[in-house]
Amino acid sequence: MITIHPANKPSAKPDPKPEAAATSAEPASPSKVIAVVNQKGGVGKTTTAINLAAALALEGLSTLLIDCDPQANTTGGLGFARDEARASIYDLLMGHTTADKVILPTDVANLSLIPGSKNLIGANLELVAQDRREYRLRDALAPIRANYPFILLDCPPALDLLTLNSLVAADGHLVPMQAEYFALEGISELMSTLDRVTQSFNSTLALEGVLLTMYDDRTNLSQQVTENLKAFFDDKLLKTSIPRNVRLAEAPSHGKPVALYDPKSRGAEAYRELALELLTRNNIQSPEEKRRKAASAAAASSL
Ligand SMILES: Nc1ncnc2c1ncn2[C@@H]1O[C@H](COP(=O)(O)OP(=O)(O)O)[C@@H](O)[C@H]1O
Ligand SMILES: [Mg+2]
Questions:
Q1: Hey, whose CA ends up nearest to atom 23 of ligand 1?
Q2: Which of 62, 93, 112, 251 is 20 to 30 A off residue 100, Cα-Cα?
Q3: pTM for the full model?
Q4: What percent of the chain has pLDDT over 70?
Q5: What is the distance in A from the centroid of ligand 2 to the CA of 157?
């Protein structure tokens, strides 16, 4: 039996100020910033960041994807060549430029990118000496946040200052993980780090969900790990899981999200389902959902 220390269980957070929210005339912020985080490498963070962002964009929602990893796999996976001379998230974190100047359009309608760069390797050290070093990304995104219903941050495989900047800038974090024994070992550490971030820097950061990636529901181990995760995370374990699908692994070498590379593949279907699940959980109706509803209402009335 695999167990996780109960002290690290994600706490059920009380609604911050229910009365204030109910009486406020201010509309709820239309923008949601989600950090895709797990200190372990190879668990599907980048694959999830690219393909979830593309699926949200294809639902008709302006989406900004930010590559916060020095490996810049998100940038490469969307077809952008490695180019250290191009302005990137590094320049934004260092205060050399503003967000509107580093945003690039992509081949996916409604999807924009702030590219990563190898220069980020130095950022961890350089940031230490800077003012408000944990808040650099949050401050830099403030002027453009409202332009995007969704902003996704692809984090590096480390709990470093880059990941901390992402978590401080985020409203929610999404944790991709594989259903394997060793994945569970890191979860306690991740959850206690996230709790510390919430207490010290960002009291409104909430767990958006835990996503099973490269999932194979035929194995006993997958099923056992899933049961344990369900007991631990309850409804924070997302209903959608992402199957192992070779199209997802191939798509980045073609510089495309799977939705453009092979829209009918199981991988594309799973990320679309994930986007719809997150929209439902956040009570957001996308332009495409409205269009589908109108079309089915029209079809029903013509019967
Ligand atoms: N569902 C999947 N099916 C098949 N291969 C996958 C899947 N998700 C990720 N991969 C592959 O696994 C490797 C690690 O995934 P990646 O998203 O880069 O992880 P991370 O960003 O957490 O390091 C990559 O080669 C990627 O193409
Ligand atoms: Mg990655």
A1: 42
A2: 251
A3: 0.91
A4: 90
A5: 7
What architecture (CATH level 2) is domain 31-284?
A: 3-Layer(aba) Sandwich (3.40)
Q: What is the DSSP letter of 288?
A: H
Per the structure block, which two tokens stand in for 4?
Answer: 């996780």
Q: For the chain, report the end-to-end CA distance as a whole number of angstroms.
A: 55
Mean pLDDT is lowest, of 77-86, 186-195, 246-255, for 186-195
Domains of the chain by residue range: 31-284
63 Cα–ligand 1 center, Å:
21
Nearest to 35 by CA among 151, 126, 142: 151
The DSSP code sequence of 100-139 is: HHH-EE-SSTTEEEE---TTHHHHHHHHHTSTTTTSHHHH
Q: pLDDT tens for residues 165-203?
A: 999 999 999 999 998 877 777 788 888 889 999 999 999
